[in-house]
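Quick question: what would this complex look like in 3D?
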Amino acid sequence: MKNPKDETRSVAGPLLSIDRIGQSYASGNGVIHALVDLSLDIKASEFVCVVGPSGCGKSTLIDAISGISPPPSGQIRLQNKPVRGISPEIGMVFQKYSAFPWMTVQENVSYGPRIRGLPAQRIVDLTRKYIELVGLTGYEHLYPKELSGGMSKRVDIARAYANEPSILLMDEPFAALDDFTRKQMQLELLEIWSAEKRTVLFVTHDLDEATFLADRVVVLRRPDRDTKSLGAILDIDLPRPRTDSLRYEPRFSALRQRLMAALGKVEAHP
Amino acid sequence: MSPTSSRLLGVFGLFAVFVIWWAISNSGWVTPLYLPSPEEVLLSFVKHSGDMPRHVGASMYRIAAGFAIGSSLGIVMGLFIGWNKVVGALLEPLVEFIRPMPPLALIPLFILWFGIGDDSKIIVIAFGSWVVLVVTTIDAVRNVDPIFINAARLLGAKGYSIFRTILFPAILPVIMGGLRVAAAGSFGMSVAAEFMGTSSGFGYLIIEGRRFIQTDMLLMGVFAITICSMIVNWLLKWVERRFTRWVPRK
């Protein structure tokens, strides 16, 4: 995966740099530490998955990077600029269906380009391109109420991509889908990702999903005042493009097993 | 049951009530003074057909003016109170205090302040519509799923564009429901206000019917206002369907 172009890009440092961020909430009996002293660098074009036991701060991490709730300590830098609050540079696919119900598929996907006032032709091109990429051509004029769960999710993904962010955050986007649709969506997402090479940070609790999608998997643990959030980082050196048959190969199972072991370790020693 | 047969059944039920009414009033058991027959009420419509436009016009003017003023003020205030925390903190206790005040109880006060003419009637209708819409709008704004607001902001929307593209469409179906409630209420308030003194309108027909013991005229007034209220409700329903096609309906 190394070519001269990547080298020049890496001179400028990581695309996203998370530097010792922490987040905690007051609760009835004391303080809940959601994230403690977490540092993580994500390279341009990388596909990074985040896994961890429930309560390990996966969603807190997403909220922190997206600017929905910026962390009180530490710093997040995107392309060397500090992230301060919500910005269209950072795209988001939520766990819940989030297509605007009052807009058609086309209006949803074109929302970002329209609201940022891009030239009309550019809006048309971007919208058509991403509707086609997620396979919703022909459904442009339907409202979300007329779509299946999988199609609705495709709208969310196309809408995030059409806004051309530097990084896409995905917070368990396929958790609500049935197994078949989920696997289908994973393949489609990888196709879009390899066509675009746009950086993705993907939170999931599904180890198969993480192993299948990621370049690297970040394992978070449930932190404490003096236990840091970061549990382990695993490289997934499976070849790309990845296809469904990969899921049945021994090296896939081996990596999944290693991931399981890493997760077991952070669960056993919180 | 198919939609056609359920509609037929509904028409039959309505028709049956009129038949029973017709049978009782023509049987001689009850004097027409208490219950005039349907045909007498219908005749009364014919008799007053020359006068009717004036009465319908007078009432509909008061209702339309009061409803429009009150609803728009209610929506605008509701948006500010629901959206802006400072405005909300300042004005919400006031709204909560005014909310349980029956508008009809204020008619005498409004007459004292604004006279016996159209003004006091329009103001009581506006007041009643305002209460419904301000409360509905505050709730609607606060019930907008924050995921839509966050999604819009993450796509680059700010300030007024969030309001225009997210908040307003999201609350529109709830507001339309509030408008229909307020419209129905406006008819009631106009009649009550007209009882207090006027020389035109549905309330006038009804109160004059009682004064001269012309029960057919009284009932005619009741039916006239019912028909107008129904038409307004249909119109609002049509507008609602037209502008909120995206809402999942069963």
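Answer marked as accepted. The beta strands of chain A are 16-27, 30-42, 47-51, 73-78, 81-82, 90-93, 167-171, 199-203, 216-220, 230-235.
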